[in-house]
C-alpha cells in the first residue's frame, strides 16, 4: 500500500504552531517557541506527558542514507536535540507516518 507523503516546510512555521507527529510507535507534539532556531517544547512518546525543550534538527531516512533539514515529512524519522540535567542528547523518533500542524490565533 502506497501512502501519500506529507511535508511541512519548517521555514513556514510560526511561534506557537504545534506539530502533531504520528510515528509507527507513538504520538508526539512539538510546540514551536522560536522558529528561527527550531526550538520548541516536545512531548509524547517515551517522554509521556512531560514537556522538554528541544531543537528540531531534521529528518533522517529509515536507512540513514538521507538527511533533510528543511522539511518535516512522513516516511522518515524526526531528529531532535534535547537537554537533560547533565548533557545534551540526540532524540530520534520512529518513522513518522502522519503529520499535522495546529495553528493558534497568535501564529496567524
Fill in the keyword field for this structure.
single chain, 108 residues, mainly beta, 6-stranded antiparallel β-barrel, two-stranded antiparallel ribbon, 9 strands, globular
Task: Kindly describe this structure.
With 108 residues, the protein is mainly β. The chain has one domain (7-107). 0% of the residues lie in helices and 56% in strands. The protein contains no helices and nine strands. It has strands at 7-9, 18-23, 27-34, 39-44, 52-61, 67-68, 71-73, 76-83, 88-102. It has a six-stranded antiparallel beta barrel with strand order 2-3-4-5-8-9. A two-stranded antiparallel sheet has the order 1-7. A hairpin with a 3-residue loop joins strand 2 and strand 3. The chain is globular and about 35 Å long. The N and C termini lie far apart (36 Å).
Radius of gyration, in Å, reads: 13 Å
**Multimeric organization:** single chain
How much helicity do the residues have? under 10%
Which overall shape is indicated by the principal axes computed on the Cα atoms?
globular
Give the strand content: over 45%
